[in-house]
Amino acid sequence: MQQVKLVAVDEDGTFLHNHIHYDAQRFERIWVRMQELGVRFVVATGNQCYQVQELFANHAHEMGIVSANGAYVLDGNEEVYAARASNEAVSLLINACHEQRDVPFSMLGVKGAYVERGTSQEFFDDMAQYCYRQYWVDDFAEVEDQVFMFSSVVDESVVGEQIVRFRNAVGDLMDVVGSGEGYFDVICPGVSKASGLTYLLNRWGISPDECVAFGDSDNDLAMLSLVGCGYAMQNAPAHVRAAADRVAPSCDDDGVLQVLEELFSL
Q: What is d(CA 82, CA 94) in angstroms, rounded to the nearest whole number?
């Protein structure tokens, strides 16, 4: 692998403990070292960009953000790319949501995320961990926004069944991907963390071979394959670990920070 010029990290199950915590002081030491070496840092997540900006408030204006599984990409505070689901795809998803009320959804766009009234408060609060700008609406169809993703969570034992169910509902107009622990997303075709990261690589003149990336779920696989060295977390499913170049310690053991300290001689 060539000299590392970029580090990309997934959040939940990878960089964070319990979806909200990381060792900020330890990361700050690594951040300073990366700045000395001219290494870029990118957060690549299924979460909303506003969540990333708050979580990394000290450095969000200096890092890359690949949010909503690659659908919305920022270089600091500057928008680089925003996906747009077709009107037909959005209509099909809305109809499927209305016909299959047993599966709750949040609809994500550039301005925010939206949950229809009648959905449980528990689901709204759960999704609010990942979407810091989320609003109740009467009907998805009335929302005026550039929609690029729908997100849901179900019991982990039936997530595969639900992924197939919604793939059948939207055909090839959208992709449906699992993101771990019963969560799954319906995203624009061809959009992934890898495609989002590629926009930043092209912008910054960095080769994929000069990058390392960390992830734990199916929605990280393309990104792990893209870079020079892809790390799966020890807590990742076996098939994700098997697809990666290397395995990092568990997220609960600050596995990403451990590897970065070794890479950058800290």
A: 20
φ/ψ (deg, to 5) at 58: -70, -25
pLDDT more than 90, % of the chain: 90
Q: How many Å apart are CA 217 and CA 177, to the nearest integer?
A: 10
**Which pLDDT belongs to residue 19?**
65
Question: How many angstroms separate the CA atoms of 126 and 140, rounded?
Answer: 19
Helix (H, G, I), strand (E, B) or coil at 3: coil
Residue range 114-143: average pLDDT?
95
Distance CA 48, CA 174 (A): 19
Tell me which of 10, 75, 218, 254 is the catalytic residue. 10
Q: Mean pLDDT, to the nearest integer, of 240-245?
A: 97
Q: Are strands 229-233 and 246-248 parallel, antiparallel or unpaired?
A: parallel
Q: How far apart are CA 89 and CA 249, in angstroms?
A: 39
Q: Is 10 a catalytic residue?
A: yes
pLDDT digits (tens, 9 = 90+) for 36-46: 999 999 999 99
Distance CA 21, CA 23 (A): 7
| pTM flag (> 0.85) | yes
> What is the average pLDDT across 91-98?
92
Q: Rounded CA gap, 43 and 49, in Å?
A: 9
Q: Which domains does the chain have, with CATH numbers?
A: 6-82+191-263 (3.40.50.1000), 87-187 (3.30.1240.10)
Cα separation values, 165 from 73, 99, 250, Å: 29, 12, 32
Q: Cα–Cα distance between 129 and 151 in angstroms, integer? A: 13
CA-based end-to-end distance of the chain: 20
